[in-house]
């Protein structure tokens, strides 16, 4: 091609087809001087792949207008997200579909065929500017909202090797998979509000605060887990394009420690998934993907076929152990319920963390061995604080039902901790006294044989008659689905060991008023 020659679009296609001229030689900055997307660097070396995944659709029907062909070739950026019909040259119109974004308000894609030549029909005149087709030389050319629903990280925004970077995908070409995914803004990891630790007025309360300050999860710990989550989500979306990966559990609910594992929930759809069949199959594919593609930084991925099956693995970069489940959606909801409780009152987090450390030291905090899991322990502390003569916590689900509804869309649940005001309790008990009261309540006051712990109702309820509650030694109600979170305690020996530890620790702490008498310094300072 002669320098400075600018052929019309039809001639350009004729040359490409006749001489099989590579796209990188035909399209350059001199031909499209107003295109801001040309001249970007190629793929970063670690993402380079053989350049065979994108070829110009040279088999387009000759009856198509040259404007159709140009739009088809260059109206894309992320080739992986192109509809197969476009890559095959079949440019049939895409029916109108509603696309939700941002705050959930929908936009409507055009009902007219995508390609109409150069002149738009009259019924397109009222289409908003950001939805209309933008030409390369238009000063208003920018990505539409539809393009922003699935943003790419900076390190993934490269062009194909040896070719030009192509303009952003227009709203016409949003794949059906993207349209069906509810938009999700990542949960902010900032604290819902500035919270000042309580002032310790006695030695025992100061010891409780010391344990909390030594053992609480740091911001850098959370960022490591979030980085791993975001990278794994990109990888898993190669298998399940509609999926989303959530960080859940103690890492995000405000009660995490420096040694807390990471819990991940893979949501492939918002409907329930059969955990015995579907979930195990999905996790088997994820495990295989980890073994084949991510062995460089994912260590020992293992499928555990439990009641809620998980894939356990270790991230070599952050050295964090992770458990990944499928569609355990209640875990997402209770993560943000607990996060709200954690920041509702300044004494909640220190007390919960010390109780977790105490239970772990006395070996009654391991569901795999028939004792209490951490979630049940947190609910037990919250329940105690709700049932004091002068409560320190309310029932959030009763006071703010709209913020903690089981029907709330998942991409909105993270907003709850930021919408609930702090709770002002008249109870000014010190942390040391609250720890003593917690041990005494479950050692001498709570009726294990006939009562159920309910944070949802903020009181002890009579045990239900259902099968799940029958012959269970400890009953702790899950706030959203009403199941028993303490069902792992199914042996009387383990139950007696738990009760005995509450009683012994209460007597010892009451007489000595020294936290080291029930939680030695060396048992937690190693963190």
UniProtKB/TrEMBL annotation:
The keyword Nucleotide-binding applies. GO terms for cellular component: cytoplasm. Residues 431-484 form the PAP-associated domain. Its EC number is 2.7.7.19. Coiled coil: none annotated. It catalyses: RNA(n) + ATP = RNA(n)-3'-adenine ribonucleotide + diphosphate. It is an enzyme of class 2 (transferase). Interacts with CPEB1, CPEB2, CPSF1 and PABPC1. Interacts with QKI isoform QKI7; promoting recruitment to miRNA miR-122 and miR-122 stabilization. It holds the Pfam family MTPAP-like_central. Keywords: ATP-binding, Cytoplasm, Magnesium, Manganese, Metal-binding, mRNA processing, Nucleotide-binding, Transferase. Cytoplasmic poly(A) RNA polymerase that adds successive AMP monomers to the 3'-end of specific RNAs, forming a poly(A) tail. In contrast to the canonical nuclear poly(A) RNA polymerase, it only adds poly(A) to selected cytoplasmic mRNAs. Does not play a role in replication-dependent histone mRNA degradation. Adds a single nucleotide to the 3' end of specific miRNAs, monoadenylation stabilizes and prolongs the activity of some but not all miRNAs. SUPFAM superfamilies: Nucleotidyltransferase (SSF81301), PAP/OAS1 substrate-binding domain (SSF81631). This is Poly(A) RNA polymerase GLD2. Its main location: cytoplasm. Its cofactor is Mg(2+); Mn(2+). Gene3D superfamilies: 1.10.1410.10, Beta Polymerase, domain 2. Residues 204-342 form the Poly(A) RNA polymerase mitochondrial-like central palm domain. InterPro entries: MTPAP-like_central, NT_sf, PAP_assoc. It is found in: Cytoplasm. Belongs to the DNA polymerase type-B-like family. GLD2 subfamily. GO terms for molecular function: ATP binding; metal ion binding; poly(A) RNA polymerase activity. GO terms for biological process: mRNA processing; regulation of gene expression; RNA 3'-end processing.
